[in-house]
Amino acid sequence: MSDARATVTDPILEVRGLQRHFGGVVAVDIDHLSISRDSMTALIGPNGAGKTTLFNLLTGFDRPNQGSWSFDGVDLHRRTAHAVARTGMVRTFQLTKALARLSVLDNVLLGAGHARGERFFEALAGGWRASERDRIERAEALLEDVRLADKRDDDAATLSGGQRKLLELARALMAEPKLLMLDEPMAGVNPALAEFLVDRLVALRGRGITIVFVEHELDVVMATADHVVCMAEGSVISTGSPAQVLRDPAVAEAYLGIRQTARMKTRGDAADLAAQHSEEPG
Prior knowledge:
- This protein is α/β, with parallel strands linked by helices.
- Helix content is 40%, strand content 22%.
- The strands form two sheets. A six-stranded mixed sheet has the order 6-7-8-3-9-10, with helices on both faces.
């Protein structure tokens, strides 16, 4: 297992002693984790490893039992989700959060860091009109970039699941993030759209945006990630380059153990499954 601190220079995000319990279940237990600035980091691990819970904690959608984290040198562990987003740390969700009755364009505009009315004195001076035009032009450019320009005035409810993923990406980018956290951006997306989405993420590397994304497809991880963090049972079990992490025996055990169990359950091979557990230490 590699040490997270050994492979990271100029960290933009640092996590220390972070724990989250749900009753007697430890969902997250991370001693230390750092994310390199301007990198693309894949967060991998079997289902139930704690990846989404970690995202929820870091972005203010949940509260830890203990621990702290800092983003770009700023302590965030007591901030609300709204306040976290204002620092430049923006996330998407496994299940897309498009507001169905708003237009596609209006959904993207919701991501703007300074919506009309927030700058009262600017509004009094008439400056809001120019700002509003700028925001609309930027939102339209983002829709063009994710191939949704022709859906500009459609209700978000009319979009396919894959198109909603693209819409959520555009809305997140509208906030001009420094760190973009994507929770399973490829989930439920058809292969052609997934390939396009991968291309869009790779293109963001040149825009000064650090990306952390949860992904189960290891070929996508190998093709896109600079660094990989693998979690299992709430803890970080391996970090490093994609090749280093995927060669780690702890990672193979975390994945293959669960897949083997699933195959046995599917086959109804209860005797073999019981024998396997009886041979395990502890």
